[in-house]
Design a protein that fits this description.
It is a single chain. The protein is α/β, with parallel strands linked by helices. It has one domain (about 5-185, about 215-240): 3-Layer(aba) Sandwich (Rossmann fold). The protein contains eight helices and seven strands. It has helices at about 15-25, 40-50, 65-75, 100-130, 150-170, 190-195, 200-205, 215-230, and strands at about 5-10, 30-35, 55, 80-85, 130-135, 175-180, 240.
Length: about 250
């Protein structure tokens, strides 16, 4: 097992990409802690995974909740891996129609939450001699789409800050990488598209992906598994595009 004996914290893991990342990590031997605003969903997912998986209800924009999740994940000692997966988007619409409330929310969840997590987890990883941080960015921060300008900008920030974190934290043996998925069939799909989720509308978007399909949770989970494992011990500062060729 590729993560045997390691402890991992995955945010936003009650559903979607996060749920599959958590399940994959557990299957590969990690003791997984799921943090999600949806406490019931997090508990259900932890029970589904079984073993040592545990759930913590919490908001990634809250310093207290982030610290609570880290404490739970460290209950057996180390915290080797943190996956900042929680995210949100305003609905696809013209730039002038996005409200200040929506702007503040998308930045709070997609960017400032990483600020909170970094401030809480870096001292822990420094003390234990290293660790792995994985940030879930997006192809939206590489090849932006109209109607998602403020969301695109948050993911551009995540993509770049991952590389900057990697450089600054390398002396502490803390590896930081980013996974940038193309759109997948998650709960945010209609918001991304800005239109009803119909076969016709899906087909229009899929036509822009050379490999001919949207991303699936297993695609993102497998990328995270590799980057979190010791097989990637010399890899840091990478923005790995899991996109079927969309950003080529």
């Amino acid at each position: 097992m590729r993560l045997k004996g390691k402890s991992a914290l995955v945010t936003g893991a009650a559903s979607g990409f996060g749920a599959e990342i958590a399940a994959t990590f557990a299957r590969e031997g990690a003791r997984v802690t799921i943090m999600d605003l949806n406490g019931h969903g997090a508990k259900t997912q932890a029970e589904k995974i079984g073993g040592d998986a545990q759930a913590v209800a919490g908001d990634v924009t809250s310093v207290a909740d982030v610290e609570k999740a880290i404490a739970a994940a460290r209950s057996n000692g180390r915290l080797d891996i943190v996956v900042n997966n929680a995210g949100w988007t305003h609905r696809n619409k013209p730039i002038m129609e996005v409200s200040e409330e929506e702007f503040d929310k998308v930045y709070a969840i997609n960017v400032k939450a990483l600020f909170h997590m970094t401030r809480a987890i870096v001292p822990v990883m420094r003390e234990q001699g290293g660790g792995v941080v994985l940030n879930i960015g997006s192809t939206a921060g590489i090849r932006p789409r109209p109607g998602l300008t403020w969301y695109n900008s948050t993911k551009g920030a995540v993509n770049l800050l991952s590389r900057s974190m990697a450089v600054e934290l390398a002396p502490d043996k803390i590896r930081v990488n980013c996974v940038a998925p193309v759109m997948g069939a998650t709960g945010l799909l209609e918001s991304f598209m800005g239109v009803p989720d119909t076969p016709e509308n899906r087909a229009k978007f899929i036509a822009t992906i050379p490999l001919g399909r949207m991303s699936e949770p297993k695609d993102i989970a497998n990328a995270c598994l590799y980057l979190a494992s010791d097989e990637a011990e010399f890899i840091t500062g990478v923005v790995l595009e899991v996109d079927g060729g969309r950003t080529v």
